[in-house]
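Hi all, posting the design record for the shared folder.

TITLE: backbone redesign
STEP: 1 of 1
STRUCTURE INPUT:
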């Protein structure tokens, strides 16, 4: 038996061995408990008595919807608020179709039918069908849910693993050419320093939007150009949250060029002057990019600023994330190795860089055929 702390004095996972299987392994009961450690230990003792006396209710006959509630409660302390909400929204749609079915009766035919519905009939909030990438996300969620159900001994195996994993759609990457970047920077010179700094830094760092809004001045060294990226901000349920970056490799040290350094120095000076003017009204978040009163900016703000600039100057349409694609594509064009790019932009692996930007590496691949030209020419 064990009581494992998930969130100090708030959330615990209780694990109780209850029987032996035919193969000699232990069958275990898992339960997520919300409350203090003393109460969690009391709950563990109560469960132990219930199992020993046979008074614990049989849970093998629960339907998928009841199980999904247990699953979300189990995951909530582990997930970021945004990911938890995404999971919850997707679980609602899953339950509309298979929630009434007993968990033990879920099979490949039922799951295949659900995935077919997502592909052929489901319309999202924007009135569009789901992309292959979103369907794959549903597949991954259901797969994880059923793996947990196996772990909890609700079902003997996971039927989802016998279904072919949906393929992701190939990313349609849009980016600016060198000429378009030059035009963008020329247009930016007429805009407020805050607008200039947001767009230019995003382009220079090739970072994610949340990483940009999560930066504090403590992360930025304006003498060396060194920038530490180790957090991100998200907006969920009308609140702005700070969380860790997307993956372990997303935590990284980056560097910016002299142009961006000088721009940030001017912007920081302007921000400091505004802080002095507002006095006690200034909110001391220490963020690089703030509201007019110094508070956290909404993670959508950089997107709205960039869209405003595109419309004002009639520039080629590009999403804010397209600035990240632009920075990466130009590093590839200038011959930087995938390992260096991966490290700079915080991809989880070099394979991610290769997969998403493989077509940009095509010219380098073609040049590889000419690598021994000087040797072959001597034979002629």
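Okay, here is what came back for every position:
SEQUENCE:
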């Amino acid at each position: 038996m064990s009581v494992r702390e998930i969130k100090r004095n708030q959330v615990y996972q209780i694990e109780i061995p209850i029987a032996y299987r035919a193969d000699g392994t232990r069958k275990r009961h898992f339960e997520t408990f919300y409350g203090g450690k003393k109460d969690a230990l009391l709950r563990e003792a109560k469960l132990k008595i219930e199992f020993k006396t046979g008074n614990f209710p049989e849970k093998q006959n629960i339907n998928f919807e009841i199980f999904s509630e247990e699953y979300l409660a189990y995951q909530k302390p582990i997930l970021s608020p945004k990911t938890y909400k995404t999971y919850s929204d997707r679980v609602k749609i899953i339950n509309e179709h298979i929630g009434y079915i007993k968990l033990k009766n879920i099979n490949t035919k039922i799951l295949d039918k659900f995935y077919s519905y997502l592909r052929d009939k489901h319309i999202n909030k924007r009135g569009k069908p789901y992309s292959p990438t979103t369907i794959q996300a549903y597949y991954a969620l259901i797969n994880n849910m059923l793996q947990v159900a196996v772990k909890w001994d609700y079902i003997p195996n996971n039927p989802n693993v016998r279904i072919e994993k949906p393929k992701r759609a190939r990313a349609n990457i849009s980016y600016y050419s060198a000429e378009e970047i030059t035009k963008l920077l020329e247009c930016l010179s007429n805009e407020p320093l805050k607008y200039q700094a947001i767009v230019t830094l995003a382009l220079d760092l090739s970072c994610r939007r949340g990483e940009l809004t999560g930066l504090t001045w403590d992360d930025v060294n304006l003498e060396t150009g060194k920038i530490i990226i180790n957090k991100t901000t998200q907006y969920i349920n009308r609140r702005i949250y700070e969380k860790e970056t997307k993956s372990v490799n997303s935590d990284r040290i980056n560097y910016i060029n002299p142009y961006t350094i000088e721009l940030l120095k001017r912007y920081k000076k302007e921000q400091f002057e505004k802080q002095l003017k507002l006095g006690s009204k200034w909110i001391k978040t220490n963020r690089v990019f703030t509201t007019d009163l110094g508070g956290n900016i909404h993670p959508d703000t950089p997107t709205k600023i960039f869209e405003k600039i595109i419309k004002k100057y009639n520039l080629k349409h590009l999403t804010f994330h397209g600035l990240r694609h632009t920075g990466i594509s130009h590093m590839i064009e200038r011959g930087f190795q995938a390992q260096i790019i991966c490290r700079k932009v915080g991809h989880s692996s070099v394979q991610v860089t290769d997969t998403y930007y493989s077509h940009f590496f095509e010219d380098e691949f073609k040049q590889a055929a000419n690598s021994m030209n000087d040797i072959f020419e001597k034979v002629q």
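COMMENT: The chain has a mean pLDDT of 85.
Let me know if anyone wants the other runs.
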